[in-house]
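W.,

You were right to be curious about this one. When I first looked at the sequence I had no strong expectations either way, so I just let the prediction run and decided to look at it fresh. Below is the sequence, 383 residues in total, followed by the output.
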Amino acid sequence: MKKLLSELLLGLLLIVGGACGPITLSTPGQQPSIISFNAEPSSISAGESSNLSWNVSGATTVSIDQGIGNVALTGTRSVAPSTTTVYTLTAFSSVGSITATTQVIVSGTPTSTGSPVINSFVANPSSISLGGSTSLSWSVSDATSVTIDNGVGAVGSSGSTTVLPTTTTTYTLTASNAAGNDTEIALVTVSGAGSSVGPPVINFFTATPQVISGGSGSTFLRWNVSNATSVSIDNGVGSVDTHGTMLLTLSYSTNLTLTAYNSNGMVYQTLPITIAGVPLPPTFAVTSVVASSSPPSYSGPCPYQFNFYATITANGAGTVTYQWERSDGTSDLPQTISFSSAGSQTVTTYWYLGAIGSGWERVHILSPNSTLSNQAFFVLNCL
C-alpha cells in the first residue's frame, strides 16, 4: 500500500511539473553556448516578415541587435526589415560571450555593404595547464582580411588553429573590409605559469555596443584583470571583481575608466561610450598626484613625527575626494578638496612613530577618477 501511494505521489509531481513548465538549471561560470539562431523564411519580399528563433544555454544574458534588445534563453521574434539585414545574437556569462548571426534577405532592395561580422571566436578549452594546448576557432562574414595576434597571423574567414601559450594570453581576432573592421577576443588561462610580480594586467575591458542609438540605452561591460588586489570602475559603478559582466544603462555619452592596482603599481584603461547625437559632458579629472615625505629619513631620539605632502593636479573646476593610505594597512577617512579652475593644490598628513623601522604613505584619489600617488617612503632610526 505504501509503495502504491509513493508511486501515485511521484506521478502527481511529474504531472504538476509538466504543467508548470520545465525547470532550467544553469551551471555558474560556464561558457555560454548558442544551440541555434535562425530566420524563417530567410528570404522575403519588401513588406513581408520573417521569424527569428533561437536556443541558448549557459548564459546569464542574451541580446539581439537591430533594436530588439534583451531576450530570453529561448524564443521567437517576428521582424520585418525593409532591407537585407544581418541580425547578431550575443550570449553573455561570467566566463565570456559568444555571438551568432542570421540574415534576412529582402528581395528588391540592395544588400548591405557594412562592416564585417565576427560570428564566433572561442578558445576550447579556455583554461589549460602549463605545457598544454588549446584550439582557437572562428567564423567571420563579409571580411576581406582576418588576422589573429600573438603570432598566429593572417587566417581564413573560418577555421581553427592550435596554440600553446606559456602564460595567460588574450588572443584578438580582427576582421576588416572597405567599410570598417570588427574585433573579438578569446582569453586562454594558463595555470601553473606563475604569477607576475609586476603591476596588474588588464586583459580586456570592452562594451557591447560601444555606440548606442536612440538617445539612451544599455551596453554590456566585460572585463578581465590579472594579478590585481583591487579593481574598480568609475562613474558610479565602484569596486568590482577581477572579471565579470555588467549591463549598464546610460542616457549620456561618457568615458568609463577601469582601474586595477596591487602593491607593485596601478594600471587603468578608459573606454568611451557614445550615445548617438549626445556629446560627452566636460570631463573633470585628476591628472597627477605626487607624494613626498619630509624628511625621507631620520636618525635621533624617538618618538618622531614624519610629515607627508601630496600635490594634486586637476584639469578644471570640481571636487576631488581622496584619502591617505599607509604601509601598515591603515588609512585616514576620505577628505575633499575643491578646485575653482585647473591647477594644483597640496594636502598634508603626518605619522608619529616611536620605534625603528621604515614604511610609506600615499594618496588614493577616490573621485572623480580613481588613481594612486607614488609611495612616499621613510626610514626611522631611533638612537
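Here's what jumped out at me. Residues 2-20 form the longest helix (19 residues). And, maybe more interesting for your project: The chain has four domains: 30-111, 113-194, 198-281, 286-382.

Coffee later to discuss?

I.
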